[in-house]
Amino acid sequence: MKECLQELYNLEVIGFIRLSKYVYKVKTKDQFYCLKYTTNIHLERMYEHICSLQMNCFVRICKNKEKHILSKYHDQYFYLMPYLEMDQGIVKELKIKYYLETISNVHNSSFFQCAISKDYFKKQVQDISNTLESRKKYYQTMMNNYENMYYRSPSGWMFVLNYYRLKRMLEKVTSFMDEYQMVTKEIHHLRVCLVYQHFDYQHIMMKQQTLISIDKIDIMQCIYDIYVLYQSSIDFIYDFDVLFEYYLSRVHLQKQEKVLLSSLLCLVPIIELEQDEVHNIINMARLFYYIDSIEGLLEQLKE
Prior knowledge:
Blueprint: H1 2-9, E1 13-18, E2 23-28, E3 32-38, H2 43-52, E4 71-73, E5 76-82, H3 92-110, E6 112-115, H4 120-147, H5 154-183, E7 189-195, E8 204-205, E9 210-211, E10 218-220, H6 223-232, H7 241-250, H8 255-265, H9 277-302
Antiparallel strand pairs: 1-2, 2-3, 3-5, 4-5, 6-7, 7-10, 8-9
Helix pairs in contact: 3-7, 4-5, 5-8, 5-9, 6-8, 8-9
């Protein structure tokens, strides 16, 4: 890899520090870089959109000697970017507020209309229905297991006593999907924009006002960023309604977008149980807090 970086980027590499399975910190003679392997071969095209729209909120990617951001090493693609130090001590609420402010700007700056195929909405509804059936089956199996236990753990009792709430939330998906099919019946063009789709607290660099890890950027309906945020943030323990109101005040959602988002939010995230009962209790509490939080958001989306 040292020879590869020397050849493609003219960098004199001293060494590598592995940060995760796909990410390495690269020490060079002059500075540190971050190298990330990716499977998204379309990232080059997405990055061109970012640059053409002058979106400085995303991390800058180094171009190789061939003026491409993606480079190949053996059978894998990677990209190189300046290494940014992680924020320390910044509360999650501030990070989410900055994130919503940033993606609302990204959405508003990149909206455009595109023609869609005749069966686009039909396929979209089918995909959501498949996810719904998978979630129903997962939690029904969990419920069956707890019901057959003679002695239930505290987390087991939490689940059994609140299962009706989870089931009721999942049942709303079908209702929203029926409404979605009605409101999209005469739609032949779709409003889309750049979506980040990779929320993680560690991807938000407050000091540099930058979002890193841009591998999942795509052109889709804007509401998918909100959906991914909620599916990824089941650990929050504070009231999210005010922050969501901030996004809605900046991005005017269309009727079909509100209905689609309502349906997606009702797809309760999957939690995995472990041997640690304290961990399981915390996860159960987060799961049912998620349901409470979504109830509030659904009311906002009716307005």
